[in-house]
Each structure stands twice: as structure tokens, then as C-alpha cells.
Amino acid sequence: MVDNKSTILTRELLVSVLKEQYETFAAKDTGIQREVLDRLEGILKTPPVLVITGLRRVGKSTLLAQIAHRYLNEAYYFVNFEDERLLNFRAQDFDLLHETLISLFGEKKTFLFDEIQNIPEWERFVRRLHDQGFKFIVTGSNASLLSQELGTRLTGRSIRIELFPFSFREFLKFREIVIPNTQVLTAVQRGTLIRLVNEYLNMGGIPDALKYPELEMHRSLYDDVLYRDIAARYKLENVRSLKELAFYLVSNLSSTVSFNKLKDLLKLGSVSTVKTYIDYLENSWLFFVVSKYAYSVKEQQIAAKKLYCIDTGLARSVGFSFSQNTGRLMENAVFLQLRKKGQAIHYYKTTSDLEVDFFLPKDSLLIQVAQDFDHEETRERELRAIVSVAQEQKNSSKLVIITEHNKERIVRDDLAIEVVPLYEWLLEK
Fold first, then answer.
1. Where are the alpha helices (DSSP H) in 109-186?
2. Which domains does the chain possess?
């Protein structure tokens, strides 16, 4: 039997927790500077609540520390709501929290709230103090919950920033490798970058997984998302079906999947159940769903989807035989780099069933990913696909084929196609 008395929220408990949290946070190793940090300076000078969302352990707390050290000069409060000692914290406790923070650290105008989605109706307190001129920077690991809360009481009062695992550029900085000018590379530098980008594909960009490679960080993170962020939060009874679906998806990245076929294959009962589970996985930042490009919204909805994982290292670690297919890892890495820009991303299939991996309508950009572009049959297949889509789409102004090491410019049917190695494309984006 659990002794609930030990978890009752009191001022004494808050004092202890808040002092310990602040001291730990202030001394936190901020690691390498995240690329997003520079563009936050202007946002921090504006009134809206800054919301940082992303997968567990992707570095949101570290980014908060980087923000505090660089921009806030100790003029902030910090509270981590992932702390198990705050399990009984409720919306009505925020005033007590504020009073306790003032008694400990004096009056400050900026709040840093880590993993805020753990507190129901947190947005009520934030809106009330925001309207009084206070600044809030909050993090959360559930995209759906945050969107609902921001959309109800904080409409027009917030800016959302998505934090991803390390980019290839950040991965190199973490490894303390000087990034060369990709336009003037020696043969040794090219070979080194090909090796490093393959290491990046295999290891991924989860900071703790890179820092502690001897630990099974990917598996632990994967299980936390499935059990804590999904099964427990949504009170799922059939956890086995969720696990089987997630395992199938992570083992078949970048392949087209039909919700109806998934229902039959995994015996999930209904297409609605499949869609609900995939929504949970997407809201918890484990997967992303990409739809086929079509002028009809209905066609987009019913067509097969492609799914990508938040991290190639995680996918390789927990998926079945995934380490064998470098081409899929390359495609996943390209998707993640594109996704950071927040634009609509689709795959494209022509009327003659030729497919291009990525179509970005806003940029009129077509991207095909091909690991082995030296093989003549592969080369012709990829060129035929991207040219056919460009001719069918008509307004596609930029055509790119991303390969493991090839670099050239090809003109086919009056269309210019840039062929670039993955390392160069990732470093330029």
C-alpha cells in the first residue's frame, strides 16, 4: 500500500525541491550550442510565451539552460515538473509555487517550466501572469496536449519552437570535429565525411545516447515513450498491440503503409484504432506521417502513408534488421532535416506509378534519395522518376538527388538535376 502522506505537496517540500532544482539547473553542463539558440534572441524580447516541444531527452532542458545562461542573467525561476516529488502538483498550487519562489529567490519576471504538460490546466496560471507582464518559457513532450492547451487559453499568446535531435552539423561539433568547406574538399576530407555521415546515421543525434554509448539509451527512451507517454497517459489496456505497431513501423521506415493493411496484419480491430495509435506515436514525437501529394484532400487522406522516425540511431537500435538498409536511414535523415523548416512535405507518385521521396510544394522542390547512384540501373530509375514527376507537376523548379558520395549536374529533357552527397546537403541546410 502506498503511503500518500509522503507525497502531499507542502511549502516545506516545495522549498526543498525548488532549491535543489535551481542549483542543479544553474550548474548544468550546457554542452554544444544548439543551432536554434541564435534565432531565439529576438523571440525572447517579445511578449508571447515561448513553447519548446520535442521528444524526451532530445535536449529541451539543456536548451533551457543555454537560454538562461546566454540571455537571462540569473533573472528567472526554474521548475522541472518531471520531478516525481511534484506528482501531486495541481493547477491550484501555482500561487503557492509563486510565493515560494519569491521567498527563495526574490521577485523575477521570467519563468522556465520544464515538461509542463504533466500539470493539467497549467495554461490558466500562465495566461493570468502573462497578462500581468510576466515572461514564460516552457517545454513539453506531447505535441497534441500542448496544441490543445495553447489553442484554448493561449491563442495568440504563444510561439512554438520544435527541438530535434542533433543535426549532422551539431553531431560533428559534439565530436569536436572542425567542419570543412564542402566546396573545396580534398579526397581525404571527402572520405572522412562519408565515414562520419554513416556514423551519424547509425548513432543518431540523441545527446545522451551519444554521450553514453555503452548504455542502451535508445531502448530506454523508446520504452519510456510507449509506456509513460502513451500507454499510461491514455490509459491503454492493449499495450501489446501498441508495441507491435510501433515495432512494425520502426522496422519499415520510409516504406508506404496502408492503415487498412496494418489493421489486418496486426489484428488491431479497426482502421480507427490504427489511426489513433499512430496519432499517439506522432504526438509523442516518435514518428512522423507523410501523405501522398494530391490536389484532392480526400485522396491524400485515403492514400498510403510513409512514416519516419525522430532519430535514425533509435530506429536502427530498436527496429528489426534495420542496420542493413543504409538507404532508408539516409531518407529518414533527409526527412528530418526538411521537417525542421516546418513546411508541408509530401511524397509524390505519378499516374504511371513512379515515385519521388519528397515534394515541397511551397519551394517547388523535388528530392530523391538514392544510396547507390553508381549502378546504371538505379541511376536511370531515379532520373526517370524525378523527371517524370517534374514534367507532371510542371512547376517544380528545383530537382535534387541525394546520394552517398556522388556529386554532379545532370540535364535531362531540358531539366537540370543537382546530384549531391548526403554529407554536403546536410551541412548546407
1. 122-130, 143-153, 168-174
2. 4-162 (3.40.50.300), 187-428 (no CATH)
8 A C-beta contact, residue 130 and residue 157: yes
Residues 6+ apart with CB under 8 A from 226: 239, 242, 243, 246
- 347, 292 contact by CB (below 8 A): yes
Helix/strand/coil for 183: coil
Are 334 and 306 within 8 A, CB to CB?
no
Q: Supply 393's cell numbers.
A: 507537376
Phi-psi region of 82 (alpha: psi -120 to 50; beta: other; left: phi over 0): alpha
Instruction: For residues 356 and 183, give the distance between their C-alpha atoms in angstroms, rounded to a whole number.
Output: 27
- The rounded distance, in Å, linking the Cα atoms of 315 and 90 is 36
Residue type present at position 131: D
- Per-residue pLDDT tens digits of the chain, which is 429 residues long: 344 444 689 999 999 999 999 999 999 999 999 999 999 999 999 999 999 999 999 999 999 999 999 999 999 999 999 999 999 999 999 999 999 999 999 999 999 999 998 898 999 999 999 999 999 999 998 876 667 667 677 888 899 899 999 999 999 999 999 999 988 999 999 999 999 999 999 999 999 999 999 999 999 999 999 999 999 989 998 899 999 999 999 999 999 999 999 999 888 889 999 999 999 999 999 999 999 999 888 888 889 999 999 999 999 999 876 546 899 999 999 999 999 988 899 999 998 999 999 999 999 999 999 998 999 999 999 999 999 999 998 877 799 999 999 999 999 999 999 999 999 999 986
Q: 407: which 3 cell numbers?
A: 556529386
94-105 and 122-130 are packed helices; what angle lies between their axes, rounded to 10 degrees? Answer: 60
